[in-house]
Amino acid sequence: MDEKSRDLKRVRYIATRLFILFLKERSGGLSYRKMEMFFKKPDYQSEKEFQDSYSGAFAKCAKGQTRIQDQKLIHKIENNEKFQGAKYLLDHPLWLILENPECSLEALHQYMYLLPPNIQNRLFKPNKNTGIYKRCYWSKTEQFSRISMLNNLDALACFLMLIREMELLTKWHAYVKIKWYTHDLFIRLSYFQPLSSLSDDLYSLIWKYFLSKHNPITENLFNAKRKKQYQFFSAYFKSPYPIENFQIYHDIVSETLVHMQKLIPIDNSKKQRLDLLFWVFEYNWLEIHSALREIDSSSEIPLKIEQLITAYKDSNSRKHIRSTEVLYF
To answer: At what angle do helices 270-282 and 285-295 cross, to 10 degrees?
Structure first.
């Protein structure tokens, strides 16, 4: 088995790990042994009898040593109200695009139709005359931000699909733009459990098969007519650097949240912190981090931080999203 085959085979093992970590989070931190007992112990069997035959399957899944493939067990877990959504993690479109990073445009659009309606409605629009849904392409970055604002695996899957689509269509500026949205979104998501426990493994695949390709963008990708345009706009075609140490990035995220909690009320829910972090990244997270540090030595709140707070609090996000042009080549 070659390296690529081994890599792509890992995808479903990562999916299983995420599934198990999701269960652990929803259970309130039960041990894998107790979780396995909760889901797999037959009613007629005593705890002592189950312990004697304990397989350690959940612990092995969490370590990426095996996959969960028992559909009866998966449905039993999904039917428990506390753990609803677990099955979707195993069947998520993210795994399809990761398993098929060089898929065709036709296959790609089929993957897009597996994304939830709130994303599909941005990707496809009905023809007024025929009613047939067609892929629509954006000339500004606002829609990328709208998807990024979801702060979830659906958004991550969509961005990987868009990277591949722009590669096939040779729309290189959009291609690079989406790489940056993917990079920033992954930093945010990987700060929190359950993704933080498998961020290295998942990111290694995303980097290898999506973010590192065609990096750097060179004039060789353009025809003679576009070469001069590329030379003029070359600064717009810079891709993100690889993340070699997540802890450095997460330390900046953590410091940013601590500083922001001194300025506005933020509870410890993952959703509220991710909502805030979306705006932090929208306004350039490194500049925000630097501006927040300035407050320690000054009583004045920098304008950039005031703008960030206003955007976060305002229910009308349209006024605050940064919308820039996407070059058509």
So the answer is: 100
Stretch (H or E) spanning 97: helix 93-99
Tokens coding 94: 């993210």
78 assigned to some structural domain: yes
Task: Output the pLDDT for position 48.
Answer: 81
Query: Is 300 among the domain residues?
Result: yes
Cα separations in angstroms, 133 against 126, 143, 162, 168, 234: 4, 18, 17, 20, 35
Tokens of 104: 């065709």
* Predicted local confidence at residue 300, as pLDDT: 83
Whether 65 has a pLDDT exceeding 90, the answer reads yes
Cα–Cα distances in Å, from 252 out to 261, 285, 298? 14, 9, 20
Could you check whether the bond before residue 194 is cis, i.e. omega within 30 degrees of 0? yes
Give the count of domains, the chain.
Answer: 2
For residues 104 and 111, is the Cβ–Cβ distance under 8 A? no
Picking from 42, 58, 91, the residue at the C-terminal end of a domain is: 91
- pLDDT, residue 190, reads 98
Task: Identify which of 17, 43, 42 has the alpha carbon closest to the alpha carbon of residue 32.
Answer: 17
